[in-house]
Design a protein that fits this description.
- The protein is about 35% helix and about 10% strand.
- The protein is built from twelve helices and nine strands.
- The strands form two sheets. It has a seven-stranded mixed sheet, with helices on both faces.
- α1 packs across α4 and α1 runs parallel beside α12.
- The longest helix is centred in the middle third of the chain and has 14 residues.
- The chain starts with a strand and ends with a helix.
- The relative contact order is 0.16.
Length: about 290
Amino acid sequence: MAKILIPLPRNDVDPSEVAVSWQTLRADGHEISFATPDGHPASADSMMLDGVGLDPWGWIPGLRRFSLVGRFLRANRDARKAYAALRQDAAFGSPWRWDEIAAADYDALLLPGGHRARGMREYLESPLLQGLVSTFFADDKPVAAICHGVLLAARSRWPVTGVSVLFGRQTTALTWALEKKAWHTARITRFWDPDYYRTYSEARDQSDGYMSVQQEVTRALAGPADFMDVPARADDYRRKTSGMVRDSSRDASPAFVVRDGNYLSARWPGDVHTFASQFSAMLGPP
């Protein structure tokens, strides 16, 4: 049994990425602890649970609760059930504070993501968490990161050289193609808040996608070739890249994950079942 730490923001974590990972790892017998900025339980992005606010009428009182597009964009049924179970978990309900945790107390680290700037920036920009991630890499302990969790890893640096802990490694993360597709959708369906799916937006003098997860992560790597995306000739290429099909505990064909030594990465919630299962396998039998 491995002791796994999952640090979380206080708000707006992606429910699929945290809950399915927790459910899979716990079912395999691993012990999971959580940490938040203030030691209070984290909360997921509500729009990823109920879809309310993701339709063009989502700004109109009385109409916003009628979700149509939001039902497609939100977490799927399996993930919502997993999140409901997670909320009853004692460890999730009594997390540590970020400033109380030490890498020496854990065997492995898992970094979920989330895209909503309101809650995620505190997590992604935390020097405490970046230092923690660096220590796990320095100790060569297993680390798994998915979606924006990879961005937290990319921002974590070796103290002496100042380069990212991902420098010299291969990784994937939320691709610009997937991020842009969600962003363009929200510009129509959530037109009053068109950047809902963009955690960081470009300044006027920056090129399209410069502040995307993929491009920032790529800038932290030894070279662009170390950012991995689905090969054009991969089996099930369209299922893996459409952004419309998610994996499940029974079907890994839509997923794409990358392992480099003790480091595992994935792109988006649609990879999470395969991501969590492979991380559990890395940790060995309980």
